[in-house]
């Protein structure tokens, strides 16, 4: 298999059915779906056992959060690339076909497409890392980007140091190392849900984002200034 889809779940029965339908309706079925469940008690595991394809993988055990679960899924994958898909995200029908084709044509380490986020379409490779962090490189870590699995052998797995923004840290690290990115800005890969911890703990996410920016950016005072501006602009989210 060229690509694996990795999904982490925890009591996700209310939303996982839509993603499951998207998985089963992919026009290109040449992939493995790996689900890492954190010990659901709401029937998520039972639903998935009755829904997934024979070659898919379901593991249910306690973990230490989403990135610990993702690391487990990456280790279980035997594919060249992997795509992250949240339990409440949506993947459009042609997405695996588009990524498979671009992976074969480009042999890139990271391939990024666009994604729908609410009423907006986010596209990759826009802006600067000094202002946007990983969002200048990719539209989103979930659904719209595939990563070469071997990157984790060279640059490490998702760190527990940043429980909300470990994906940003990994992206900044591999970008600094000069890995090969390929972009499909005119293809919308799916829909990204806004129900994750990045939105429920906005201040925590903003703080981690800034800490990572300070690790990679030369102008530290500028990053701190941006942090305070973002806090003021989003004070309602922070105090919610």
Main attributes?
single chain; 9 strands; Spore Coat Polysaccharide Biosynthesis Protein SpsA, Chain A; 2 domains; 21% strand; 9-stranded mixed β-sheet; 240 residues; 41% helix; globular; 11 helices; alpha/beta
Which helices and strands occur, and which strands form pairs?
Elements: E1 3-9, H1 13-24, E2 31-37, H2 44-49, E3 57-60, H3 66-76, E4 81-84, E5 90-91, H4 95-106, E6 110-117, E7 120-122, H5 129-132, E8 145-148, H6 151-155, H7 166-176, E9 181-191, H8 197-200, H9 202-216, H10 220-233, H11 235-239
Parallel strand pairs: 1-2, 1-4, 2-3, 6-9
Antiparallel strand pairs: 4-8, 5-9, 6-7, 6-8
Helix pairs in contact: 9-10
Can you describe what's shown?
- There is one protein chain.
- The chain folds into 2 domains: 3-193, Spore Coat Polysaccharide Biosynthesis Protein SpsA, Chain A (Alpha-Beta Complex); 201-240.
- The chain has 11 helices and 9 strands.
- Helix 9 (202-216) runs antiparallel to helix 10.
- Strands 1, 2, 3, 4, 5, 6, 7, 8 and 9 form a 9-stranded mixed β-sheet that branches.
- 41% of the residues lie in helices and 21% in strands.
- The chain is an alpha/beta fold and 240 residues long.
Summarize the structure in short:
With 240 residues, this protein is of the alpha/beta class. It is 41% helix and 21% strand.
User: What's the CATH topology label of the largest domain?
Assistant: Spore Coat Polysaccharide Biosynthesis Protein SpsA, Chain A
Strand elements, count: 9
N-to-C terminal Cα separation, in Å? 44 Å
**Biggest beta-sheet profile:** 9 strands, mixed
- Return the string of H and E elements: EHEHEHEEHEEHEHHEHHHH
Helix % is 40-55%
Tally of DSSP helical segments = 11
Assign the CATH class of the largest domain.
Alpha Beta
| Uncertain runs | none
Structural class: alpha/beta
Oligomerization state of this entry? single chain
CATH architecture of the largest domain: Alpha-Beta Complex
Number of domains: 2
Strand content bin: 15-25%
User: Can you give the mean pLDDT?
Assistant: 95
Q: What's the Cα radius of gyration?
A: 17 Å
Characterize the overall form.
globular
CATH superfamily of the largest domain: Spore Coat Polysaccharide Biosynthesis Protein SpsA, Chain A
């Amino acid at each position: 298999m060229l690509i694996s889809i990795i999904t982490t779940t925890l009591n996700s029965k209310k939303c996982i059915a839509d993603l499951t339908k998207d998985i089963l309706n992919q026009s290109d079925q040449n992939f493995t779906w790996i689900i890492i469940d954190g010990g659901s008690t709401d029937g998520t595991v039972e639903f998935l056992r009755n829904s997934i394809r024979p070659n898919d993988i379901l593991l249910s055990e306690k973990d230490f959060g989403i990135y610990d679960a993702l690391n487990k899924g990456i280790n279980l994958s035997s594919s060249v690339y992997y795509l992250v898909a949240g339990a409440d995200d949506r993947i459009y029908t042609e997405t695996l076909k588009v990524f498979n084709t671009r992976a074969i044509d480009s042999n890139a380490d990271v391939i990024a497409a666009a994604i729908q986020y609410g009423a907006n379409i986010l596209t990759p490779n826009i802006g600067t890392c000094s202002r946007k962090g990983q969002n200048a490189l990719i539209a989103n870590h979930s659904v719209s980007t595939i990563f070469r699995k071997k990157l984790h052998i060279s640059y490490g797995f998702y760190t527990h140091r940043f429980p909300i923004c470990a994906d940003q840290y990994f992206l900044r690290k591999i970008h600094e190392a000069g890995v090969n990115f390929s972009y499909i800005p005119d293809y919308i890969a799916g829909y990204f849900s806004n129900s994750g911890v990045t939105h429920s703990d906005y201040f925590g996410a903003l703080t981690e984002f800034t800490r990572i920016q300070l690790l990679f950016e030369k102008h530290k005072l500028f990053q701190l200034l941006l942090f305070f501006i973002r806090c003021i602009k989003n004070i309602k989210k922070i105090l919610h």
